[in-house]
Amino acid sequence: MKYSVLMSLYYKVDPKFILESLNSVINQTLKPDEIVIVKDGKLTKKQEDLLKKLDKENKGLFKFITFKQNMGQGYAYEYALSKCKNDLVTLMDSDDICDLTKNEIEVKYLNEHKEIDMVGSDTYEFNGDITNIISYRKMPITHEEIIKFSKKRCPLVQPTTMFRKNKVLNAGGYKEGRIAEDWDLYIRMIQNGLKLHNIDKPLVYVRVNDDFYSRRGGIQYLKTILEFKKKHYKSGFFSFKDYVISSCAHIVTCLMPNFVRTFIYKKFLRKKA
Fold this sequence. Notes:
By secondary structure, the protein is an alpha/beta fold. It has helices spanning 15-26, 45-57, 73-80, 102-112, 143-150, 165-170, 181-191, 210-214, 219-234, 240-255, 258-268; strands at residues 4-9, 34-40, 62-67, 88-91, 97-98, 118-126, 133-137, 162-164, 196-207. Strand 2 (34-40), helix 2 (45-57) and strand 3 form a beta-alpha-beta unit. Helix 9 packs antiparallel against helix 10. It is globular, with a radius of gyration of 18 Å.
């Protein structure tokens, strides 16, 4: 029943958000055996003071890995995953909040379903305070539904995932990258015969703001996502039809004004909470 929590942290995250996130991890109904924090570049004094305080209050729980410069979440997970001492590992974003039963539910599911190698869940999306829920993100449930969904969009929400560390490492682990490193991993896991599943229940509250939608647009984002899709067209995962339809959809959404893209995400890609 032991598991590790892995979080990547960089200087732009509000210490208040970090505290809320880590408190939701520390106070789980099934408490973690280890929390691995990657300091992805130099942190602020307030962030460092917060981590020292939490480390002092929870002796032996935290493990810290420090990078001299910001390398990005993909690289952080790539490096730190093998440093986690437990085979079950869950990821956590530094500004999101877990339901307090999340990890108990996921550990129990993986223990009861040995054929499943990674499990995720639905999410609530909130702005500002956790009581201000603005949308519900519904994900595909079964492995077969996940494969179909992944031809168009990322099939799991990264901070909801818990997985068997050795199976992920055997599939190549996380690759260095700042966009779609999670989607890339899920495709490689599928190609390696590993099984994925989403629990039909929201177990994580994901923080969104105005920047959340603008980051999913622009020329640079589009170039990176098209390179990713070309890679998996060549790998044989995307058919030519999948590749064309999915790429065209991203071209349109990336190049449209942000207010239009925000409307599309909220109206068509999310459900009302």
